[in-house]
Each structure stands twice: as structure tokens, then as C-alpha cells.
């Protein structure tokens, strides 16, 4: 059906009539006003045809890209997140991690002909195995020694200093492929490493289309309720979106990647730093701001370590009373989560493991956090080393494995702002909306607040909008 047929009232009414549907006058006005001609065939969906009637609510829903059962231009997967965990869950999580990551590593051409550790131990010459690093240290002669495990056995592996991959950063609990040769001699078999193979990201080109820009904007760590929340910057950003000028008119999705409020009891004496003590009132304040955002912009809200869900990851999405506070165009996400927006994969993670990664990755600090993010992507795991400062709930599914190569990776938490690109994966450590805190002052860290990052889903263009004043 040609779009040009739907420019006037009569042809629209006629079309719906032929499909056995009635249209309310207010719905018809919106269709004409918003030039929704191209969406009209989409209105004849089973759920709408069943009702026999198209009202204003239905049209607004379609305008936002929703169907009755879910949105039609993106998908939201809500993982089943258990609250209680057993020792068995803990074991299963590592098994699950090993299985998912070893499958990815095995697809690398270098690993063709790899064997399990039990077979490797009985072999000579060049061997390829895939294992999880259960320990890593340095011998007194300066060689790196590690033990890797698969589902049945373990193997001692030596990386000779000044040879091959000697300088490689090896993290405990990461899953790696190892190419090397078995050493002869008394005692347990030992493997000498020639090459380390990571799950890694295959190089990708960002595909561009000639379509108009469609932006997904990212902001993080708003900390509503804190005395240091930059309310006027935040309001300036909200009004800019509301005015729908410039790039804002192409804004489709807004992602809030955790610490949306400052919370209470997150650290000792926090009450002194709060403007609003009650977390529910903090969410209500945020809800007020978000209600200013046009309802055809889809908002996604993820919790962080300051929010009122359990601290340990994976963090469940907001439900009940808190969820109700948010406007209708807001969808609650667990942490971490992968969204599919306009066919692009967008990985979102609040970023608690970045605190561990800055300590583990040489040269990484809060200002050069990209170094740590690169290492996360290379290992295809959001929290490669278990424990440390990242509380994780063991569960039979390891939600931190980056199973699908993302097109865009969004994190936050550390209040820096860092835009990067790892092998074609665009990423950002999203800016905060909170001024420097006493803790950051003590750590000599100055945040980069009030920046909105906008990724165009149809091109490689990324725009930064700075609202700091
Ligand atoms: Fe945080």
C-alpha cells in the first residue's frame, strides 16, 4: 500500500474500514498531525484487529514503537535472577563460564585441533588446550607460573620470562586458550607456553546506512538526593531533550546505567551528604524530571550500587513501588543487560568491576579507564576476576559473560567520562551528574560531570553534549 494514499482523513478512514476497524476522532487527529502515514499498515496487527477499534492510546503506543505484547523495534530479555545461591550454584557458574568462553575460544583458527587437559597430559610436542586460570604467580627466577583447569583436570603452565607472551596480563579466573609444548621430566606434566589465545572481539566495521540518525543517549550516576547532585545541569539536559531541537529531535532511546539515586546507608555518615534522606523520595524526584522527557523517547533504567536493590550482581531490575514511580515510557533493566535497539546490540553494565580492573590492569586509572574496558572486552567477561570489590551472586548462569559481540558498550560507576573503540565496538564510560565528592577529593580524582553521550545507531557518529555550567 502506497504511503501517499494516507495523507487525508477520508483515505485513512476508508483503509481502516476495509480492514474492519473503527478509528476514534482523537486517534485520527494524531495520525494526521504526526504524519503517521507510513505506520498505518502496522496498525493492522493481530492484537489491534481483534479489538476492532483504534483509539488514541493505541496510536500513541505505536508512535513509541510498541505492540500490545512488546515493542517491535527492540527486544528486552529479562534474565531469571535467583536470590538464594548454593555451593552448587557457585560451581555451576564457573562451569557455565568455562563452557561459554571455551566455545568462543575454540572458534579461533589458532585453536584448531585443541584437546582436553587430560589428553594433553599424556601427549608430547605442540599442544593446544583451553582452561580457566585457577592460580597465577611468578617464580623466583621471574617466570610466570599458572594452573589452568577444564571440566576434568588441571595443568601447570609456565610462561618463560623474555619469551613469547611473557608480558601478557593473566587474570585469575579468566578463560584462555594456550598453545605450547609439554615438558618432559619427573613429576607432574608441565606445559611451556608459546601463545595465549583470548576469546576477544573479532574486528568489525561499523555498518552505516543512509538513514536519518537515530540516537541512543547514555547517562549514568545521576545520584538524585545527594547535595552534590548537579540538578541545574540535569534540568538543562532535560529541557534540551524536551525542546527537540538539533540532534535531540533524533533521540530515540535514553539509557540510565545505574546509581540513579544516591540512596541511603551506602557508606558511613552518608546522611550528612544528602538533600533528600528517603530513597523513595529520591526516586520520586527523578520520576518528576523524567516525566518531562517526551513520551516517544524510550527510557531504560538500570540499578547500580547506590540503588535500592541487592548490591550483588547480577542486580535485579526495579519492581513494585519503585518501578511505579517511573513514567510509562521507562523500562526497568537488570544489571548487566544486553538490549537490541534497531538491530544493534547494546551491552549495558553499571561497572562495579572497573574498581577491580583499575588495580589489575597496568597503566589503567580512573582517567584512563579505557585500558580496563579494552581488557574486559578482550576477555569477553564483565568481571574477569571473581571476588575483589565486585560482589557477585553465584548462579547457574554466568550473566557477566559477553556472549554476543556488542555494537555499543555502555558503563558508568566511576564518574569519569571516556569514549573508546575496541576493534569496532564503540564504548563509553558514561558521565556522572554529581560534583566531586569528599571521597574523590581524598583520592585526588576529578570527575567529568554532565556530559550526555549520543551514539547514532545508523552510523559511526558519536556526539557529546556537555551541560556543565
Ligand atoms: Fe556506582
Would you give an account of this structure?
By secondary structure, the protein is an alpha/beta fold. The chain folds into 3 domains: 10-72; 109-197, Nucleic acid-binding proteins (OB fold (Dihydrolipoamide Acetyltransferase, E2P), Beta Barrel), CATH 2.40.50; 215-466, Purple Acid Phosphatase, chain A, domain 2 (4-Layer Sandwich). The protein contains 13 helices and 19 strands. The strands form 4 sheets. The chain has a 6-stranded mixed beta sheet, covered by helices on one side. The protein has a 6-stranded mixed beta sheet with strand order 12-11-10-9-18-19, with no helix packed on it. The two termini are 51 Å apart. Mean pLDDT is 89; it is low at 67-73. Fe (ii) ion is lined by residues 221, 258-259, 304-306, 350, 413. Fe (ii) ion (FE2) is lined by residues 221, 258-259, 304-306, 350, 413.
Briefly characterize the structure.
With 469 residues, the chain is α/β, with parallel strands linked by helices.
SSE diagram, text form:
Blueprint: H1 9-18, E1 22-23, H2 25-33, H3 40-43, H4 46-51, E2 53-54, H5 56-63, E3 74-76, H6 87-106, H7 117-121, E4 126-138, E5 144-149, E6 154-159, E7 175-183, E8 190-197, E9 215-219, H8 231-243, E10 251-257, H9 279-290, E11 298-302, H10 320-325, E12 330-332, E13 337-341, E14 344-349, H11 354-360, H12 370-379, E15 408-411, E16 418-422, E17 425-429, H13 438-442, E18 451-456, E19 462-466
Parallel strand pairs: 1-2, 6-8, 9-10, 10-11, 11-12, 14-15, 15-17
Antiparallel strand pairs: 3-13, 4-5, 4-7, 5-6, 7-8, 9-18, 13-14, 16-17, 18-19
Helix pairs in contact: 2-5, 11-12
The structure holds fe (ii) ion (FE2).
Residues 221, 258-259, 304-306, 350, 413 line the site of fe (ii) ion.
Amino acid at each position: 500500500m502506497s504511503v501517499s494514499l494516507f495523507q487525508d482523513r477520508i483515505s485513512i478512514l476508508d483503509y481502516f474500514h476495509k480492514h474492519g476497524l473503527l478509528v476514534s476522532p482523537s486517534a485520527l487527529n494524531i495520525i494526521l498531525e504526526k504524519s503517521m502515514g507510513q505506520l498505518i499498515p502496522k496498525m493492522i496487527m493481530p492484537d489491534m484487529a481483534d479489538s476492532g477499534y483504534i483509539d488514541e492510546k493505541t496510536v500513541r503506543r505505536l508512535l513509541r514503537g510498541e505492540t500490545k505484547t512488546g515493542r517491535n523495534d527492540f527486544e528486552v530479555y529479562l534474565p531469571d535472577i535467583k536470590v538464594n545461591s548454593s555451593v552448587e550454584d557457585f560451581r555451576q557458574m564457573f562451569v557455565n563460564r568455562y563452557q561459554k568462553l571455551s566455545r568462543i575460544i575454540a572458534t579461533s583458527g589458532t585453536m584448531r585441533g585443541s584437546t582436553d587437559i587430560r589428553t594433553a597430559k599424556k601427549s608430547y610436542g605442540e599442544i593446544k588446550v583451553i582452561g580457566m586460570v585457577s592460580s597465577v604467580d611468578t617464580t623466583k627466577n621471574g617466570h610466570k607460573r599458572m594452573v589452568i583447569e577444564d571440566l576434568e583436570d588441571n595443568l601447570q603452565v609456565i610462561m618463560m620470562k623474555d619469551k613469547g607472551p611473557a608480558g601478557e596480563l593473566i587474570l585469575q579466573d579468566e578463560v584462555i586458550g594456550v598453545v605450547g609444548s609439554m615438558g618432559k621430566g619427573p613429576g607432574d606434566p608441565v606445559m611451556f607456553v608459546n601463545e595465549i589465545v583470548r576469546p576477544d572481539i573479532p574486528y568489525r566495521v561499523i555498518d552505516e546506512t543512509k538513514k536519518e540518525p537515530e540516537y541512543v543517549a547514555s547517562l549514568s550516576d545521576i545520584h538524585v538526593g545527594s547535595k552534590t547532585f548537579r540538578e541545574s545541569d540535569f534540568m538543562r539536559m532535560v529541557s534540551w531533550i524536551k525542546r527537540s531541537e538539533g540532534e535531540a529531535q533524533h533521540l530515540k532511546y535514553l539509557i540510565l546505567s545505574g546509581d540513579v539515586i544516591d540512596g541511603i546507608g551506602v557508606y558511613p555518615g552518608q546522611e550528612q551528604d544528602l538533600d533528600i534522606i528517603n530513597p523513595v523520595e529520591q526516586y520520586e524526584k527523578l520520576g518528576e524530571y523524567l516525566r518531562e522527557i517526551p513520551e516517544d523517547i524510550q527510557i531504560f533504567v538500570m540499578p547500580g550500587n547506590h540503588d535500592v536493590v541487592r548490591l550483588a550482581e547480577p542486580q535485579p531490575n526495579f519492581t513494585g513501588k519503585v518501578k511505579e514511580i517511573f513514567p510509562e515510557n521507562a523500562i526497568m533493566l537488570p544489571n548487566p543487560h544486553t538490549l537490541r535497539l534497531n538491530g544493534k546490540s547494546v551491552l549495558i553494565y553499571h561497572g562495579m568491576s572497573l574498581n577491580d580492573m583499575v588495580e589489575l590492569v597496568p597503566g589503567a586509572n580512573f582517567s584512563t579507564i579505557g585500558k580496563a574496558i579494552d581488557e574486559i572486552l578482550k576477555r569477553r567477561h564483565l568481571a574477569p576476576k571473581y571476588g575483589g570489590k565486585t560482589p557477585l551472586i553465584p548462579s547457574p548462569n554466568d550473566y557477566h559473560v559477553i556472549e554476543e559481540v556488542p555494537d555499543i558498550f555502555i558503563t558508568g560507576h566511576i564518574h569519569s567520562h571516556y569514549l573508546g573503540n575496541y576493534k569496532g565496538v564503540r564504548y563509553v564510560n558514561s558521565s556522572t551528574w554529581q560534583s566531586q565528592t569528599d571521597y574523590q577529593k581524598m583520592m585526588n580524582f576529578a570527575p567529568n560531570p554532565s556530559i550526555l553521550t549520543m551514539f547514532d545507531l545508523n552510523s559511526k557518529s558519536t556526539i557529546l553534549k556537555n551541560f556543565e555550567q
